[in-house]
Amino acid sequence: MALLSFTDSPYTFTGTIEGSDQGWVYVTHIGATPKMDSARVQKGKFALSGTIAAPELCVIAYAGPDGEKKNGPYFFLGAGRLTLTGRKDAFSSAVITGTPIQEEYRRFSAGEEGLKDDGQQKRTAKAFVMAHPASLVSAFALLEYYSYNADDKELDTLYTGLDLPVRDSYLGLQVKDILRGAKLTAVGKPAPAFTQDDVDGKPVALSSFQGKYVLVDFWASWCGPCRQENPNVVKAFQQYHAKGFSIVGVSLDDQKERWVAAIKKDGLAWTQVSDLKGWDNQIATLYGIKGIPMNFLLDKNGNIIAKGLTGDALEKKLAELLP
Question: Looking at beta carbons, which pairs linking 274-281 to residues 24 or more positions away fall under 8 Å?
Answer without folding.
Answer: 274/196, 274/197, 274/250, 275/196, 275/197, 278/220, 278/252, 278/253, 278/254, 279/252, 281/250, 281/251, 281/252
